[in-house]
Amino acid sequence: MNENGSFYLFRAAGHWSVWAVAMLAVSWVAHTSTRMFIMGVDRTTFMQEKVQLGFEPWFAWRALLLVHVASAVIAMIAGSVSLVLGVRQSRMVIHRWAGRLYVVAVVISGLAGVPLSFTATGGILAIGGFLLLNHAWLKTTLMSYRAARGRDIALHRTWVVRSYAITFANMTVHILTTALTGIFDSHATAYTVAIWIGWPINVAIAEVWRRKSSRSL
After folding, report:
1. Which pTM was predicted?
2. Rounded Cα gap, residues 46 and 52, in angstroms
3. Which of 43, 45, 61, 143 could be disulfide-bonded to 159 (CB atoms 3.0-4.6 Å)?
4. Three-class SS of residue 122?
5. CA–CA dist 118, 66 (Å, integer)
């Protein structure tokens, strides 16, 4: 496997799957941005449910949440740009800058997410789930960055695919919460379960995709 082949994702998984992920990212970014930045945090169902349960935002909580969400949105877009462009030599400069932006955005969002985790709806289990999620997101992203700095392209590809899968965790948690609420007859329970299983599902799907694409090279 040569360096260019090991990381050229169009050849690895097919043009359609790369564009499908990119379009999914754009759709979720539009949805999240509308809810958080146009409607406003206080008008979201998420915030209204927290207030009904007695949550009182502490100083700068809303600002920290917006930083967390905004940087996650940037990470999702930067990841999509890097994914769609691939790493042909003519696109390498854009790929690298998109990658750097992705790493910075994940670090900001992940660190902002740590104190926010302690205000998660669902108690100690939800808090633990979010802390683990933030750790996994930061860990996989920093591992991908370290591999890129060491010019280990195959290892970089492995870790960045896992990291980008975790970037979609918020979307997966929302979908699973909706699906599981009817089963558990409790939104809080469904939400907590979704926090714990959402990002591992994403990583598992990404891992299958990555391994199949690697065998096709």
Report:
1. 0.86
2. 10
3. 143
4. coil
5. 16
